[in-house]
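Why this split exists: single-chain examples teach little about how molecules sit against one another. For that reason, every record in the complexes split bundles all components of an assembly together and asks for one structure covering all of them. Below is a record exactly as it appears in the raw files.
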Amino acid sequence: VVEDHATGFHAFSRLVENNQQFGDYHEAGLSTLLKWQRVCAPAFSKGLQSRGGIRLRPIFERALAMGDELHNRPHAATALLSIELTDRMLRAGVEPDRAADAQLFFSSNPFSALGVAMAASKLMADRIRGLEYSTVVSAMARNGTEFGIRVASLGDQWFTAPSPRVEGRYLPGFKAADAGLDMGDSVMTEAAGFGANLIAGAPGILRVVGGNSTQAKEWSGQMRAIAAGNSTHYSMPALDGKPAPLGIDIREVVATGFAPIIDTSIAHREPGYGIIGNGMVRAPMECFEKALQAFEAKYAA
Amino acid sequence: VVEDHATGFHAFSRLVENNQQFGDYHEAGLSTLLKWQRVCAPAFSKGLQSRGGIRLRPIFERALAMGDELHNRPHAATALLSIELTDRMLRAGVEPDRAADAQLFFSSNPFSALGVAMAASKLMADRIRGLEYSTVVSAMARNGTEFGIRVASLGDQWFTAPSPRVEGRYLPGFKAADAGLDMGDSVMTEAAGFGANLIAGAPGILRVVGGNSTQAKEWSGQMRAIAAGNSTHYSMPALDGKPAPLGIDIREVVATGFAPIIDTSIAHREPGYGIIGNGMVRAPMECFEKALQAFEAKYAA
């Protein structure tokens, strides 16, 4: 997964580099992608190709006991992955200065492991794609205009509604009027059982997204109420070792009235800016109602 | 501090190596010391001497938001320190295989940062040694026979009582009857404001020492009640960003009846074994009563 992640960035940043006309893109964002291409991708690829992939499950298990929820707070997973990547780079003969540069770039951005957690979440959820009779959400995504979900038994059809507005805290110099609507694929972590599902065990994030520890327990409690099941691998030490929820059941969402909660970043409404804030948002209930109607229509026939 | 830590192990392990007669010592323990000497000490020393020391405060700040209490759970600090040490080793020209071996040895033992936290705690507490009129504890230690405390205004005098028995959970094959009495210098972390002071923010430790999240909040609450003040650097995200307590005031201990709580490891009563369990213990109230009497005697005169 890490390798795919690095390769993905590599391909993307090559596209960017070949495009002389950067237009309205955010320069710091582009420079980050180029560093992924030039600094990290070759060094990580050599380490991973020579010494094999990294098992993410033990890293995620440890990270959840270290205050991560693996969406907006993947800090511990970033540190643990960094150590594994550096070990592989050094054993594979990556030149020490290059290994040190790649480690520094990866480890000093606490969100480095987010891309890995997103990819892992997508792979987990893809295992139920096409599963007949299942009412479990197999994908969630939003593009700043629409919020969409897919359901395991309903193929690749998206059930959409207008993208909601994130309630959150803004970085200095930005305000709610600058914000675009909810956007991005990181919500795959919530679909798999991470993110806001586990926010009660990630108190370090509350300073960033707003809310207090009592609210965090309520949010995690509501996510548990709409969960399809329990994880057999992941647990929450902050809730006395209770297993993490696994998957979202659209029947429970509609029955309880608890739309999934997402702790997320806020993008500017215009291109040319990075993240301008962080906050909490709920998936639109309309997506789940539409999906449940489609489920009933399919299996009533 | 890291350098002193490595150097200390270096000196100790040299003594061990020159002693052909190991007697009843624990072989795995000796082999660990020799690895510190042969693998870590030269590589870390080269990195630190060439590139300078590591500022611990930012690492500890981050670690406390990652579920560490820096005594029995220094896992995040170990990962963060490991990344810093590896960066220095690589920039200083330590041979890649040796740097990888040192990183592996350091990072794969989650308690590697405990020695660093102990040394940092001792340095913090040493700043109040000899401070006239202060009733704040300047040192705590136990040797398996006696538990002792020092108080800032009362010089280097130890106020002692018999070492208590730790209530805890045992590793497979061991039971309470095998346990020695409370032992070790790691209780310096509690004296400085870490350890059981912060256990409400380190839920991952409860599986190891026993107890649940409600008890952990009670323990941290009692430690706060006997604290001399608030840390201006460290805070507890699990308690909505409340500052960490700083120091223990013997007057508050005697007035509240809350003897300091320690989350600690349990040693075997006989030499030749490693850690056989973990648990919670309270410092003997007698130490604090004796110290307060000595304080009154000194300043009444």
